[in-house]
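This section describes the prediction task in plain terms. A model, or a person checking by hand, is given the sequence of a single protein chain and must write out its three-dimensional structure as a string of tokens. No templates, partner chains or ligands are provided. The sample shown here is typical of the held-out split.
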Amino acid sequence: MRLVHRIIGATTAAAVLCLILVTPALAGEGKTVNVNTATASELELLPRIGPSVAARIVEQREKNGAFKTLDDLMLVRGIGESTYEQLKPYVALSGPTTLTEKVKLPRAPKADKPAAKN
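The expected answer:
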């Protein structure tokens, strides 16, 4: 029975990984948000970015000037490496903002809880 659970878990993990790798290419279709000119509302279209983080991005930009590299987004509280990796396909430092719909990425499935021991 444990072997079946491991196989199912490995298959599920592989499927999720494929979705994570393929979805950004399909969802945005080359559409981006210019982090140096976007409004807070436009920034909220990015995956995992809500009103609070969008406001902090604008605040960081107003306080320190334009972002020089996309990596500078990680200076904003609420954007760590994981979130940054999810944002990268959808952000730009120049050009127009072309993203018009909220990008929703699939969440990783919750790990199964181990069976209770008797």
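For orientation: The helical segments are 2-28, 40-43, 51-64, 81-87.
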